[in-house]
């Protein structure tokens, strides 16, 4: 992807632009008279004097006048400085010329030259201002995006912890011997959410370990009701990804399956990472008839999916595809993200 020419890069390049411009202005007369006999007749000191007054009016406009918000009220000052600059130049320039010359025509010609430089520096100022405004817009967009991501994380974390606590509570009621192990996994889940979940990125191996613990917790809770097939393939365990980006889909799978009657309901989860392309699939049985929409917890059953979709759009705009399909028998999620 081609990198944009940012405001920071423009600021670094600007001094070189100015040096190049004035260098060309300084040597232009010599280039112009290069093929004439005798070359350019005026001294180098004469050109330095001319360059000084061109730079004076140009940078007065560039640094003082152009940045003003209400320019009209400063026009008298600009006119005064402009006339003073022309007169001062005429005074010093006559020291390099002998004999009579038409001073008025010379002053008009120099005034037009200064106006030309004013226009040129107004163009430079406009370009710089455009980059500055774009940088401010990008900064505000980034701050807004970060605020949105933090808000979405705040929604995801309690949602996950609430569901996991329900799992441990259900086993405790049954006085299951595996309850201490579940509590340990829950503790790891808390630690991950509190410490790693607050980061912008984590290694995919950490995210996978967290998801695996969650799947085991749900398997213990639902016992014979579910049959989980979890397949993981990765060519780079250290690849960085946003934390808690997949948990919403897996939570959703167990939640829909938990209300179904019968046993051995198949939940298939696949996580594949190859050459920075993350592929995630999750499918679970689904029955609209057996889903009780009047229960308060089911009113927010799409929370994880909604949050994940919003986070993907903020973090990977144009770099992911997400397909969610369901009928009366199967709910399936297919996600691909270019990291």
Task: Kindly describe this structure.
It is a single chain. The chain is built from 8 helices and 7 strands; from the N terminus they run αααααβαββαββαββ. The chain is an alpha+beta fold and 339 residues long. Strands 2-4-5-7-6 form a 5-stranded mixed sheet, with helices on one face. Helix 4 packs antiparallel against helix 5 (179-196). The longest helix has 71 residues, at 103-173.
Note the main sheet.
5 strands, mixed
CATH-defined superfamily of the largest domain = Histidine kinase-like ATPase, C-terminal domain
The overall pLDDT, averaged over residues, is 82
Distance between the termini: 13 Å
CATH class of the largest domain: Alpha Beta
Decide which structural class fits the backbone. Answer: alpha+beta
Query: Number of helical runs?
Result: 8
Which stretches are poorly predicted, pLDDT < 50 over at least 5 residues? 293-300
Principal-axis shape: rod-shaped
Rounded to the nearest angstrom, the radius of gyration is 35 Å
Estimate the strand proportion.
5-15%
Largest beta sheet: strand ordering: 2-4-5-7-6
Succession of helices and strands: HHHHHEHEEHEEHEE
User: What's the structural domain tally?
Assistant: 2
CATH topology of the largest domain: Heat Shock Protein 90
């Amino acid at each position: 992807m081609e990198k944009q020419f940012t405001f920071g890069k423009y600021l670094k390049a600007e001094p070189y632009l100015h040096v190049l411009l004035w260098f060309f202005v300084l040597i232009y007369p010599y280039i112009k008279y290069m093929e004439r006999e005798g070359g350019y007749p005026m001294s180098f000191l004469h050109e330095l004097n001319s360059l000084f007054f061109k730079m004076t009016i140009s940078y007065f406009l560039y640094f003082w006048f152009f940045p003003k918000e209400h320019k009209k009220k400063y026009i008298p000052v600009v006119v005064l400085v402009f006339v003073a600059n022309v007169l001062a130049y005429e005074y010093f320039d006559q020291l390099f010329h002998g004999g009579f010359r038409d001073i008025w025509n010379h002053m008009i010609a120099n005034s037009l030259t200064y106006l030309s430089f004013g226009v040129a520096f107004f163009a430079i100022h406009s370009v710089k201002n455009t980059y500055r405004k774009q940088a401010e817009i990008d900064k505000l967009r980034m701050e807004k995006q970060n605020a949105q991501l933090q808000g979405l994380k705040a929604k995801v974390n309690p949602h996950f912890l609430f569901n996991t606590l329900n799992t441990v509570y259900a086993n405790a009621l049954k006085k299951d011997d595996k309850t201490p192990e579940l509590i340990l996994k829950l503790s790891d889940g808390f630690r991950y959410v509190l410490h790693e979940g607050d980061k912008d990125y984590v290694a995919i191996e950490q995210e996978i370990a967290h998801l695996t613990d969650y799947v085991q917790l749900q398997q213990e809770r639902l016992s014979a009701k579910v049959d989980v097939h979890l397949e993981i393939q990765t060519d780079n365990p250290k690849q960085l990804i946003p934390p808690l980006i997949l948990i919403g889909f897996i939570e959703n799978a167990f939640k829909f399956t938990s209300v179904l009657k019968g046993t051995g309901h198949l939940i298939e989860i696949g996580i594949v990472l190859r050459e920075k392309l993350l592929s995630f699939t999750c499918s679970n049985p689904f029955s609209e008839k057996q889903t009780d929409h009047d229960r308060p917890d089911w009113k927010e059953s799409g929370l994880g999916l909604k949050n994940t979709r919003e986070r993907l759009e903020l973090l990977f705009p144009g770099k992911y595809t997400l397909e969610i399909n369901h009928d009366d028998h199967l709910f399936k999620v297919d996600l691909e993200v270019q990291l």
